[in-house]
Amino acid sequence: MKRNVLILLIVWMASWSVSFAQDKVEREVRVKSDEVPDRAKSWLKDAFEKVKRPKWFLEYSQAGKAFEAKFWWEKHYHSVKFDSLGKLIDVEIEIAKEEMPSSSWAKITSYFESEFEEYSVMKIQRQLVGEESDVEDFFDEEETEGITLRYEIEFHGKKDSWQIWEALFDEGGEFISLVRVQIRPVDNLIF
To answer: What is the DSSP string of the chain?
Structure first.
């Protein structure tokens, strides 16, 4: 009997954790440059030599802690994420839908139309993932070897009710993943 209860408890806990994995909960706190790992600051300086004073944030999420540098460069907002030790995770560049290949955008809108009653795109980001040296070469020398390109799209979508969602697509517009974005309630009422 105890064994059956234990098995049921394990199954329940596993299903509970999977349901939470489908939601994205993040909180960002502005931090000073001297609180950021030197490895992250050094990589950012090498890859983006002309960026003088990025804004640094400490991000808390279900994945753990991460540092993020945000700045304007070459007519786009950039967000560069590092793990807690300063190792590069990814670079995200905010773009307009007109900057995407039309075939990729067509596949993405087809996905939205098949999965949601209604939707409204809030933000599109080109996401670059790869080894630190490959990503640095992409920005220094426009080399694409070793780079994985994805599109991260934040949008309002209606299934049963309106929610904020974040979808990830590959370079060709093929669906990869979808998470619901959980908005933290604010501590103060804003009038």
So the answer is: -HHHHHHHHHHHHHHHHHHHHTEEEEEEEEE-GGGS-HHHHHHHHHH-TT---PEEEEEEETTEEEEEEEEEETTEEEEEEEETTS-EEEEEEEE-GGGS-HHHHHHHHHHHHHH-SEEEEEEEEEEEES-HHHHHHHHHH---TT-EEEEEEEEEEESSSEEEEEEEEETTS-EEEEEEEEPPPPSS---
Alpha carbons within 13 A on the beta-carbon side of 146: 13
122-130 mean pLDDT:
97
Distance CA(8)–CA(161), nearest Å, equals 32
Assigned fold of 25-182: Nuclear Transport Factor 2; Chain: A, (3.10.450)
- In this structure, are residues 39 and 80 in contact, taking their beta carbons and an 8 Å threshold? no
Report phi then psi at 43, rounded to 5: -60, -45
- The reported pTM is 0.81
> Rounded to an integer, what distance in angstroms lies between the CA atom of residue 58 and that of residue 129?
20
Side chain identity, residue 66:
A
| Look-up of token digits 């604010």 | 186
Query: Which pLDDT score, from 0 to 100, does residue 185 have?
Result: 57
- For CA atoms 121, 83, 146, 43, give the dihedral sign: positive
What's the half-sphere exposure (Cβ side, CA atoms, 13 Å) at 124? 19
